[in-house]
Amino acid sequence: MGLLVCKFGGSSVASIEKINNVAVRVKNMQSEGNSIVVVVSAMGDTTDELLALAHTIGNELNLREMDALLATGEQQSAALLALTLNNMGIKAISLTGWQAGVHSDSNYSKARISSIDTKRLEKELMAGKAVVVAGFQGISSDGDITTLGRGGSDTSAVALAASLKADRCMIFTDVDGVYTADPRIVKEAQKLPVISYEEMLEMASLGAVVMQPRAVEFAMLYNVEVEVRSSFNLQPGTIITEVSDMEHQRIVTGVTHDTKCAKIGLYDLPDKPGVASLIFNKLAQAGVNVDMVIQSATRKEHNDIAFTISSDDLPLALPVIENLVKEIGASGMSYGDKVAKVSIVGAGMQSNPGVAAAMFAALAEENINIQMISTSEIKVSCIIDEDSIDTAVKALHRKFKLDQLSC
Ligand code: ASP
Ligand code: MG
Question: Is the CB of 346 under 6 A from ligand 1?
Fold first, then answer.
């Protein structure tokens, strides 16, 4: 019993029938004595459809207007859910992001929440209503509508749970929870009962598309316990929380993969200060997010730099790099998007040597060549050939015995 913030993703509200199922769930949770704030995404693929529609107008689109357009998707599902709840005899009210007091900066299309004024929400909750909030949106200090980046309803939910000091934030989605690997690739993959914020953050950033990484960051910052669970069954999901007890830290918790990677190499760059700064500044100015970077050992006065980006950013990055080759006097460049990233994540690896070595051995046993490596305290990632990705994920899952999960 308490205050629950429940977020339902696009696939959970994709039709009136599904909205009806959500309403039944809300009704049941309420009848158990809980106060409920529901955060919804847009129905099904609405956001993509609105984007595609706008792009029939042209490609250079004003971001303020795009946010005004995209925010309508969540407003539809919020109002439809409130109507359905009302129809079932449940007092409910829908609120847009700005009606719910969600303030953000004015970075259109990827705005960050700056504060939440919960007065209105509290008033409606006090009146015994289920409050349905349109996710993914806020209002800037100029009074303009903003959106919070793709998948941003997760962040709306976690931020609302933090501001309202909710007892739990539940993310209802089309998967049962967080798995040790993608169950579509590894049939022995196990659902994790609990995962730490740090591990979830790595997993979400490395390609496990369960929750928006920024939402996990927010949860960690404000210590909001989040449960990811299915909206289509009643099974418990995965709880994302603080796992501080070293005893309970698994060495490897999961294997993730991401096939939306591209690799770019620059050859025979002059080995002097300022070259890397120039390259990565130009890429940043073009809005390209760089992931892994490697620089080769110096050969006389030259070296090579290779890096990875999201394959979606390749069209943005290529003209920048082609210009840089001329400007810096490199001997050439190469690129390819037939690469993928496979990673192992686990909080226990910081205190257990040999984990990276075991990963490289598992890949070598499958004759998979490692093109790039990057590590952090709790993850090791390798760039490999895209065609080997399924084999790599399966081999690593076996190597670290993730099918025999004990905690
Ligand atoms: N509807 C938005 C999107 O598709 C936000 C969300 O689903 O969380 O990205
Ligand atoms: Mg989503």
Answer: no
Q: Which atom of ligand 1 is nearest to the CA of 149?
A: 9
pLDDT tens for residues 387-407?
999 999 999 999 999 998 754
Q: Report helix angle 213-222 to 153-164, nearest 10.
A: 10
Burial 231-264 (b: 16+ CB within 10 A, else e): beeeeebbbbbebeeeeebbbbbbbbbbeebbbb
The rounded distance, in Å, linking the Cα atoms of 229 and 175 is 7
Which range (52-56, 77-81, 163-167, 244-248) has the least confidence? 244-248
Measured from the Cα of 48, ligand 1's closest atom is 4
Residue 155: CB within 6 Å of ligand 1? no
How many whole angstroms separate alpha carbon 333 and alpha carbon 318? 10
Please state, as a whole number, how many other Cβ atoms lie within 10 Å of the Cβ of residue 316: 15
Per the rule left: phi > 0, alpha: psi between -120 and 50, beta: everything else, 205 is: alpha
Ligand 2 center from residue 39 Cα (angstroms): 12
10 close to ligand 1 (CB < 6 Angstrom) = yes
Name which of 15, 1, 25, 5 is nearest 232 in CA terms: 25
**Residue 253's pLDDT is what?**
93
Ligand 1 pocket residue status of 73, Cβ below 6 Å: yes
59 near 81, Cβ under 8 Å? no
Question: Ligand 1: does its nearest atom lie under 6 Å from the Cβ of 42?
Answer: yes
Contacts of 292 (CB under 8 A, 6+ apart): 307, 308, 341, 372, 374, 381, 383
Which residue's CA is the nearest one to ligand 1's atom 9? 150
